[in-house]
Write a structure and sequence with these properties.
single chain; 6-stranded mixed sheet; globular; TATA-Binding Protein; 542 residues; 3 domains; 6-stranded antiparallel sheet; Alpha-D-Glucose-1,6-Bisphosphate, Chain A, domain 3; alpha/beta
């Protein structure tokens, strides 16, 4: 408690902007806010808004930005530029401007969006403006109390593990309260900070990934009070989708996300209002994007109502659609998926002669595959990449998942299949008839606070030291510890994978951005009842 009390006392003395928050803290509040510093990793920072070293605020934003600036200047003495964007969350614009002002004070030019824009837009901005780095203020699909800070490299991809480690070494050397940002307005006037708009060029790149010409489809769209509102409706209009209805309660940016406690299109609740509106309008398809518009969820009209399409399923549908409907495809095409993404994706892609590559969880690893292909002069071989958590990318113009291009492709796909007399549900069922149905479920176990962090470590150590011998009665025939494995050309990662003789799978990993352990369950047979049985087994070691 001494460290906690000491840190609290320093903040009471120096963090004048958060005096009210500090004065109202209980002992438990102090413990959670000051027992550690927010951790900086390859996903940057993510934390609860508020005062404290373990909270996201202008002081922690200033410290990490100064550390990033020192890192960049250590590698390039002058002419350093950084692109900055932000989402609809509370304090996002404030944090983005504060980061730009800190960079300006360090002699680094900051290009900042003149309004909130999606995460993939920031990735494109870094690349198109040839910046040395990028900053995206977002907590993606987390609840309203969170915000975050993502760092991108010059290639528009989230920074690598090695770069994140080096950046963190600079951050550690920064005194939180020594950071002095430039005056934002004066920095704009001097040219040290410049507003940038690359919307036209970005959308033109998105449109190059278009596959179908049909447009006769009715869409209900929800941006979930996020950045999709700034660009997805424009995309629909410009691409000729004229029957699009936006959920009015979720149409405008709002960091409080008043209609859903968890603005994540992976969750059925997040799309509830959109589905209700679709029932009233008779829409063919529902499309929803998360607050920073890098993930997309969907539901399709069927004879029985509206059927939610999972992230795994949508990726399979898009692979099948692109390869069966695209007018031109490269020789030796490449599809990339993460290790936790359904094996059905590989089977469908391989049917079309595509090479399938597997990477660790995190879209930066898909970006690295694109980079390696480009280094060999083979960048055009990349056709599609996705992860089961509702993130998709077609094309190489960005290095992150992009819900804008995904929204376009899903709408085109729905329209093309309607023209052929089929729904996405019909097509998906046809794929299942050909390859067999895989059942998947991702379950998260939450471990909040200091005690939770310790419990997470204990659980992972227990699974690692006492791995399951069977998965609901089927013997485990393959166990992979990605921290120690040498079989695959992948970075070391705290991930454990177990495959049973019948094809069922368990993959266990801590989240890189939230206090969670995620468990990915695959049942090769037995349907949802088998998933339930495997989950009961999982709960015993959680």
């Amino acid at each position: 408690m001494d460290r906690i009390n000491d840190n609290y006392a320093v903040w009471c003395e120096k963090a004048s902007l958060y005096k009210a928050d500090l004065d109202s803290m209980s002992d438990e509040d102090k413990k959670e806010a000051f027992y550690k510093d927010l951790e900086f990793g390859t996903a940057g920072l993510r934390g609860i808004l508020g005062a404290g070293t373990n909270r996201l605020n202008v002081y922690t934003i200033g410290k990490v930005t100064k550390g990033l600036a020192l890192y960049l200047l250590a590698h390039k003495k002058s002419g350093v530029t950084v692109a900055i964007s932000y989402d609809s969350r509370n304090c996002s614009e404030e944090f983005a401007r504060y980061a730009a002002a800190v960079l300006a004070e360090c002699g680094i030019k900051a290009y900042i969006t003149d309004k909130l824009q999606p995460t993939p837009y920031l990735s494109y901005m870094v690349r198109s403006l040839k910046c040395d780095a990028g900053i995206m203020i977002t907590a993606s699909h987390n609840p309203a109390k969170f915000n975050g800070y993502k760092v991108y490299g010059a290639d528009g991809c989230q920074v690598t593990d090695a770069a994140a480690t080096e950046i963190f070494s600079f951050i550690e050397g920064v005194d939180t309260f020594s950071v002095r940002p430039a005056d934002f307005d004066k920095a704009v006037a001097s040219g040290a900070i410049e507003f940038a708009d690359v919307t036209r060029a970005y959308l033109d790149e998105v449109y190059k990934r278009s596959v179908g010409a049909a447009r006769d489809v009715s869409v209900v769209y929800t941006p979930l009070n996020g950045t999709g509102a700034s660009i997805v409706p424009q995309m629909f209009r410009e691409r000729g989708f004229n029957n699009v209805t936006i959920v009015p309660e979720q149409a405008m940016p709002d960091g409080n996300f008043p209609t859903t406690p968890y603005p994540n299109p992976e969750k059925a609740e997040a799309l509830r209002l959109a589905v209700e509106l679709a029932k009233k309008t008779g829409a063919d398809i529902v499309i929803g994007t998360d607050p920073d518009a890098d993930r997309i969820g969907a539901a399709v009209k069927t004879g029985d109502g509206y059927r939610l399409i999972s992230g795994n399923e949508m990726g399979v549908l898009l692979i099948d659609y692109i390869f069966s409907h695209a007018k031109a495809l490269p020789k030796n095409p490449v599809v990339v998926k993460t290790i936790v993404t359904t094996d059905l994706a590989a089977r469908v892609a391989e049917r079309y002669g595509a090479e399938v590559r597997e990477v660790l969880t995190g879209f930066k690893y898909i970006g690295e595959v694109i980079k390696k292909l480009e280094q060999k002069g083979e960048g055009d071989r990349f056709v599609f990449g996705y992860e089961e958590s509702y993130g998709y990318l077609s094309g190489t113009y960005v290095r992150d998942k992009d819900a804008v291009v995904a929204s376009m492709l899903v709408a085109e796909m729905a329209a093309d299949y309607l023209k052929e007399g089929k729904t996405l549900a019909d097509v998906l069922d046809g794929i299942y008839s050909e390859f067999g149905k895989y059942y998947h479920r991702t379950v998260s176990f939450t471990y909040e606070g200091a005690a939770g962090a310790q419990k997470m470590r204990e659980v992972l150590a227990s699974v690692r030291n006492n791995p399951p011998a069977e998965i609901d009665g089927s013997a485990v025939v393959e166990s992979i510890d990605y921290l120690t494995q040498t079989k695959f050309d992948l970075p070391k990662s705290n991930v454990l994978s177990f495959k049973a003789a019948d094809g069922s799978k368990l993959i266990v990993r801590p989240s890189g951005t939230e206090p969670l352990i995620k468990v990915y369950i695959t049942a090769a047979s037995g349907g949802e009842q088998r998933i339930d049985a495997i989950l009961d087994q999982v709960k015993k070691f959680m």
